[in-house]
């Protein structure tokens, strides 16, 4: 079952409200997750979700979010921020296999762009949230 606060995204409100709630949910789910490689190479940093674009650029935020639901799917502590292709591949495959989330984002597109497109990331995260709700992992 989900842990931590998870906003109910079906509340009345405009797109901005839903976006803010989804972003806060992502922050809450990933808060405090740290890959040792981040500590080693960059000091005491961790996954820090601040937006729907640059925060997702290394793929670690996707991995952290999925790891919070499926900790046995992969060893988060071994991930490297520079291994973008691996991180995106791992995250999207885990989302599809474990949460039933369709592959709305392409690994190649994510790797090609230095900063992910915010609308694409937002759409994917909405679908992931919907799939997790459908599986009873988010209430």
UniProtKB/TrEMBL annotation:
Higher taxonomy: Eukaryota, Metazoa, Chordata, Craniata, Vertebrata
Keywords (A to Z) from UniProt: Coiled coil, Phosphoprotein
Classification via SMART domains: CH
Transmembrane segments: none
Species this chain originates from: Hemiprocne comata
InterPro entries, per the entry: CH_dom (IPR001715), CH_dom_sf (IPR036872), F-actin_Monoox_Mical (IPR050540)
Protein name: SMTL1 protein
Residues of the Calponin-homology (CH) domain: 16-133
Keyword presence, Coiled coil: yes
Record keyword Phosphoprotein present: yes
